[in-house]
Amino acid sequence: MSALSNIILVGIGILLTVTSLWYGQNHHLLPASAANSAPLFDSLFNSTLTIATGIFLIVQGVLIYTAIRYRKRRGDWGDGDPNHGNVLLEIVWTAIPAVIILWLGLSSLDVYQAINGGVGMGGHTHSGMAASEMTMAMEEPDHGAADSGYAYTPVVVPGKEVGKPELVVQVQGMQYAWVFTYPESGLVAGELHLPLNKRVRLEMTALDVNHAFWVPQFRLKQDVIPGRETYLEFVPSQLGEYPIICAELCGPYHGVMAGQLFVETPEAFERWQQEQILATRPDDSTLALAPQSESAFARAQQQRLGIPADIHQALQQGSQFSG
Amino acid sequence: MTQLYENPNLASASSASSLVKIELLSEPWWRFFTFSTDHKVIGIQYLVTTFFFYLVGGALATAVRAELATPEADFLGFERYNGAFTVHATIMIFLWIVPALVGGFGNYLVPLMIGARDMAFPKLNAVAFWMIPPTGILLLVSLLTEAPAAGWTSYPPLSLISGKLGEELWILSILLGGTSSILAAVNFFVTILKMRMPGMKLEDMPLFCWAMLATSVLTLIATPVLAGALILLSFDLLAGTAFFNPTGGGDPVVYQHMFWFYSHPAVYIMILPVFGMISEILPVHARKPIFAYKAIAYSSLAICFLGLIVWAHHMFTSGTPDWMRVFFMIATMAIAVPTGIKVFSWLATLWGGKIRFTSAMLFGMGFVSMFVVGGLSGIILASVPLDIHVHDTYFVVAHLHYVLFGGSVFGIYAGLYHWFPKMTGRMLNEFWGRVHFVLTFVGFNICFLPMHKLGLMGMPRRVAQYDPQFADLNWISSVGAFILAISTLPFLFNAIYSWLAGPKAGDNPWEALSLEWTTTSPPPHQNFYGDPILLTGPYDYGTHSKETLDYFASQLKTLRELALMDTEAPHS
């Protein structure tokens, strides 16, 4: 092979690498992330996409190159080169994918365990216990909850988080709505409000058919199944309003089964909870009548129920309801 | 090759200079509507029947995309939309890709490629085919009465409460189709192992036969489990039992395991025969031996084995225990290795060839190009943490269409263009073949590429109405679907016209070397005149001079004439 073609090959290799790396970081394929574990997902996704882009470019490049370089020339009805194998080449293209797969498998395992936070994200309590024992065994010194941004460091599960969610919410899926129960306050709501940076555990079940709880900004999804309880644990890390999407076919109106999730400061979350409880004092359990998303509606409801405008101060003393 | 020279008839024949004119028995058209036991008739019966269902499934897909062109559910409406995509998927899988590949190409090609007169069990073969029309009729009836609306996966409890009649018709239809599939698989398994012509070892077989062997094993192991699941589902539906119904203590997740125990291998049932066809088509039109024959052959078996132990990767969000998720993730990723071996071997087959850009080759190379995209998104789906985000979204829809349309359907088209001359004795029009390819390739990518982003951004699958933020990409995708719908027309008219009045193909229009090209087009009832003769290996491109091959061809012709004289002698 001539020096020139070597230089061209190296050039192509560099171009390929740079393109793949660039695309892996600039794909704009994902919504903003809003949970502690979402950056882990994004980082793994970006790396995988980088490799996938590289393989894609190599295969398509070779296809286009052969289509041009080895096209049949006019009048040439002969056969091509009768070469039918090359052991070294075959070993190379078996080994390289094997190594990539091994890397991806191990990284996925790391990220999965880190997203889990040591608690089984799956269904049965048995699996949850097994997983947390497994993670306990490999637990490392506390690096702090914020240190979760990089996918390829060994799993770091801050000890205080393992199995100790700061808020538990019971989720019920039904055709075609989500209902959220806050067991500590007995509050029942049609929308999910969560405090920022607190570990949340959702205990989910379905009343009729399978549903799936999905918040794209959290990169988390879990089927919600009648007759069994499934779990999801995460730490919301960005204030805002996010869609809760049902991702498992649940009937004709599956597409419109959407809920809303509000990540709020702990103070605002507390305030919201108190508002809801105050709104329907006579009952033990209350239904959220004042969705924050429709503030005009909320104001009307508040007026109708005679809630004073300075409710927030009133709530400071109203903490007895939170028990 | 040696067999030819040793043939005693040749010595006498070569001296006889005046040769009889071969008169092909033109068999009547209506034999395609009979209980024929000829594997070639059955193969064409399968291909034509399944192509009809492909058009029905395609019409449903077009309706689905028309619904999704705008965010509101304003075209089909909510209920009919679910029926449409359920029947679309069921038709495309059980009445198009599986029977077209296994029943159609498998039947037509396997006996010819291994030098057999027919399949091992010809009557069983016909029985298997004649189960396909009722399978389709049941499904179409359901469409007219009460369409099944629980998706082609038909997960309980939804499938138990969304209409008894439609669901039961769906179950019966799949049971029938599955039985047909099992019967066909038994036949292929025995035929490939026991009916090869004398002297042909397994490793002398064309790679398509290897692929069919692996496919048959998968079908035989996996399909009975689906049948079991559907029978239990039927009991839940009709008799009120509670195998999967949680209100009576049943477990809906068990159904998912049983369903995917078949339906993941089904993906390989739908792609392995295509791998085999591509391994046949690329060498012929690139004029090169297949690269790494053994690696391709044994990677089919590796895919077959691994394909059986990856089913729960469809259930990473179903409350599946951690150890199971990890096991199925690793097993799934491992499939990338044998699949990669195939793809790289195909590229190496093209490298250094003299590529003839026939329509078959365009679809063949289009297959490699598109299948790789599906393979790469498959790697993303295999990773548990990545799958948790994209599971049940449009990303999956994009992935499965890159594999099953960009893969299987492109492969079927490649096969149709390649073997149409053998099957009908006539050539397809190459110009319209190219138009067909360009429309299909462009329409396909416009339709399915945007879906990757839709899924990642947050659009779930199987929804009639969606968030307006996804309107633009969906509109583009629908435009692609309409182009795809139109793209079938050039093929349809080309095929009908060419079958009736296309130019005569001759025995071997592509100058191919595998055994099916040594007989006439179409081949006679018993496939070969006299005994089939292996003159060359199936992939010996570039190793024989043109003169040698011409000589072989003329000798074959002589032998055929001799055989014809032998058969005519008793009559006269």
Q: What would your notes on this structure say?
A:
- The complex is a heterodimer of chains A (323) and B (572).
- Chain A is built from seven helices and eleven strands.
- With 323 residues, chain A is an alpha/beta fold.
- Chain A has a domain at 167-322: Immunoglobulin-like.
- By secondary structure, chain B is mainly alpha-helical.
- Chain B has two domains: 1-32 and 506-572, no CATH class; 35-505, Cytochrome C Oxidase, Chain A (Up-down Bundle), CATH 1.20.210.10.
- Chain B has helices spanning 2-6, 8-15, 39-68, 78-114, 122-130, 132-144, 158-161, 164-194, 207-238, 252-286, 293-307, 322-334, 336-350, 359-382, 384-390, 394-424, 430-457, 471-501, 546-568.
- The interface between A and B is large, with 88 and 97 residues.
Offer a concise description of the structure.
The complex is a heterodimer of chains A (323) and B (572). Chain A is α/β, with parallel strands linked by helices and 323 residues long.
**CATH hierarchy class name of the domain at 167-322 in chain A:** Mainly Beta
Query: How large is the radius of gyration of chain A?
Result: 27 Å
What fraction strand of chain A? 15-25%
Helix content of chain A: 25-40%
Features:
A: 323 residues; alpha/beta; Immunoglobulin-like; 7 helices; 40% helix; elongated; B: 572 residues; mainly alpha; Cytochrome C Oxidase, Chain A; 0% strand; disordered N terminus
